[in-house]
């Protein structure tokens, strides 16, 4: 009698467990291929350290260096693209800098932000990388172009790295808990977060409309570069690049010396990317634009642009115009990781 009563309950439980198992399996299936789990070892640490040659110049013109032949896995070579969440260790946080330029107004800025980024990477298992941009021979082009060879070298040095996050030196990570994969890089985040039908800017919208917008519909599989734009233009101060054939091709084209890199563009590599986006539907299809504060909040600005509590980072873009870099930097440095109410939405 007792067994008879227990049996249906058991099968109900078993049934629920099975259904739950398949729900979870199918939810994950869209995101992550099975091979991912096969390669996942239980103690997943950061990628092994690589030999970085930061202290000596490269032996010749940058484009002739072996790093431009960085490899792309078969799934990332074709037109169909692919969508999956990267492992944390396959996210490289790249500081491409020689510590000079406008940023040298802030004492020890490079050492300080590198130490801080190391802690951030250790906390999440990302890979922290600094590349000395003085090493690249980029001819007579403006020095900010040297961020692009650094991206190529990052992919080359870490053959497994799937995403390279290029961030300028004048950026402080304000929310160390922030999960890049969940919030920015996962197929779900991209699907939910990218701006659709948003004008792509070339100067102020009212004065100089381009009449070109981001697509209304896109495939997550196609998105290889993630960027934000401020009130005037896309901004390369904080940009994510995915290891795909498209990315490699775009980096090569951006650095075409005759047509782009060697020409006088006030915004250097940023103008090149903007130009390629405005000119080519194919490029727009592969470059996703997130709302600015997602990963490029500025030190000043309204609720669309300026840092507000909880934002991932603050970027001191243009701080040198008013000579405020050091003052602002110290103010935010004191506040990194803060949880109090400091700059809420609606503040100035
Ligand atoms: C960066 O590279 C330049 C050129 O190779 C070199 O002179 C400089 O010492 C390097 N900086 C550091 C901190 O290693
Ligand atoms: C955008 O559209 C406006 C209004 O039709 C026009 O005046 C302007 O020249 C266009 N801009 C470009 C870059 O095509």
List keywords for this structure.
single chain, 348 residues, alpha/beta, Spore Coat Polysaccharide Biosynthesis Protein SpsA, Chain A, six-stranded mixed sheet, two-stranded antiparallel sheet, 11 helices, 34% helix, globular, binds 2-acetamido-2-deoxy-beta-D-glucopyranose
Task: Walk me through this protein's architecture.
Strand 5 and strand 6 (234-242) form a beta hairpin. It contains eleven helices and eight strands. It has helices at residues 2-31, 34-39, 109-124, 147-157, 180-185, 187-193, 245-254, 257-261, 268-279, 281-286, 325-335, and strands at 91-97, 127-132, 163-167, 171-173, 225-229, 234-242, 287-290, 313-315. The protein is an alpha/beta fold. The protein has one domain: Spore Coat Polysaccharide Biosynthesis Protein SpsA, Chain A. The chain starts with a helix and ends in a 13-residue tail after the last helix. Bound molecules: 2-acetamido-2-deoxy-beta-D-glucopyranose (2 copies). One 2-acetamido-2-deoxy-beta-D-glucopyranose (NAG) binds next to loops. Pfam families: Glyco_transf_34 (PF05637). One of its GO terms (biological process) is protein N-linked glycosylation. Belongs to the glycosyltransferase 34 family. One of its GO terms (molecular function) is glycosyltransferase activity.
């Amino acid at each position: 009698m007792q067994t008879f009563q227990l049996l249906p309950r058991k099968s109900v439980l078993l049934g629920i467990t099975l259904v739950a198992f398949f729900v979870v399996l199918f939810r994950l299936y869209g995101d992550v291929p099975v091979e991912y789990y096969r390669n996942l070892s239980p103690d997943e640490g950061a990628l092994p350290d690589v030999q970085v040659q930061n202290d000596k110049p490269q032996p010749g013109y940058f484009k002739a260096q072996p790093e431009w032949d960085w490899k792309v896995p078969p799934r990332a070579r074709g037109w169909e693209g692919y969508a999956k969440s990267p492992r944390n260790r396959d996210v490289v946080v790249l500081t491409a800098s020689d510590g000079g330029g406008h940023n040298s107004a802030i004492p020890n800025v490079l050492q300080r932000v590198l130490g801080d980024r190391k802690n951030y990477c250790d906390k999440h298992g990302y890979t922290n990388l600094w590349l000395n941009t003085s090493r690249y021979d980029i001819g007579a082009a403006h020095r900010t172009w040297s961020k692009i060879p650094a991206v190529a070298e990052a992919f080359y040095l870490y053959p497994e790295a799937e995403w390279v996050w290029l961030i300028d030196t004048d950026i402080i990570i304000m929310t160390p808990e922030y999960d890049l994969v969940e919030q920015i890089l996962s197929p779900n985040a991209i699907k939910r977060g990218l701006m659709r039908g948003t004008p792509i800017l070339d100067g102020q919208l009212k004065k100089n409309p381009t009449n070109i917008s981001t697509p209304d519909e896109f495939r997550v599989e196609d998105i290889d570069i993630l960027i934000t734009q401020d009130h005037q233009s896309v901004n390369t101060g904080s940009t994510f690049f995915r290891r795909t054939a498209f990315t490699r091709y775009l980096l090569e084209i951006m650095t075409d010396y005759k047509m782009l890199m060697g020409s006088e563009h006030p915004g250097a590599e940023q103008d090149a990317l903007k130009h390629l986006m405005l000119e080519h539907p194919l490029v727009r299809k592969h470059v996703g634009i997130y709302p600015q504060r997602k990963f490029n909040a500025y030190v000043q600005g309204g609720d669309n642009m300026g840092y507000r509590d909880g934002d991932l980072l603050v970027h001191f873009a243009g701080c040198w115009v008013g000579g405020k870099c050091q003052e602002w930097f110290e103010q935010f440095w004191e506040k990194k990781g803060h949880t109090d109410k400091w700059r809420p939405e609606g503040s100035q």
